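not sure who needs this but someone in the group chat was asking about Coproporphyrin III ferrochelatase from Paenibacillus swuensis so here u go. i didnt clean anything up, its just raw.
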Amino acid sequence: MEKKRIGVLVMSYGTPESLDQVEAYYTHIRRGNPPSPEQLKELTDRYEAIVGGFFPLRENTNQQVAGLEETLNGMYPEYEFVCYQGLKHAVPYIEDGVHKMAKDGINHAVGIVLAPHFSTMSVGSYIKRAQQAAEEAGLAMSFVESYHLHPQLIDALSERVADTLQRFEDRNSVPVRVVFSAHSLPEKILETGDPYPQQMIETSEAVAEQAGVNSWQFSWQSAGQTAMPWLGPDILDTLKTLQEEGVRNVLVCPIGFVSDHLEVLYDLDIEAQKVAADLGLHLERTPSLNTDPKYMTTLAESVFSKLT
């Protein structure tokens, strides 16, 4: 009997494939308004600082998409899963992924975002674009909105916290403060009761409990440079506050990010590390999930749940 083919649209924010694509990428984020030379230089400098001529960021997402397809077909052999990419700010755009599915003869699909937590401004906007494209293409499509408390996700994150704590050789005499972090969003989401901040706290609580961590807090990072206020406190301000409180060891676990990219490799590994060093803090970061089998299982089970 022929297996039923299921298309899976794997959505993410997107990143340029090379340094010469940074301007087009930044312009798309700015809704068609090109950045000033100063803004472009600042962003390009950040990419150059983390990639050093080699640009691995897109490859991380490519590997996650391939890993999910392999995991789905391994776990649910009664179906044939085919994964497609859909990016918010780079090619292939979300609409491109949907149209490719329709062109390939897929008539049933599931959409999932490489971000565990739901916000109308982030995951919600991805789903809205995909849904509109699916309706235009006559494609039946359901969506995973969040998976922030999936047991395999919590396992993977808590293992990283427990393992990374071992890097603090003086942890028995000098306590370690664990700081969970995620991408900030404009404060206006609070007016509508958006679940994003609460879901972050729920994930943090679950990971801390499983890792046996008592001393922890949550902080935002990577806020946009706009006139409107963004959710805080920012991680850089949090580090200063911790130093004033007498904390010396800090472990950052960026639960809002699932792979190595700019917000992790620059905002934490370079910018936050410099601030920590200036403050005399020992700062460590948990490794990103990337293609961790437990994360792949999280995604696969979340996708499959939309078929039953």
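also The chain has a mean pLDDT of 95. if thats useful
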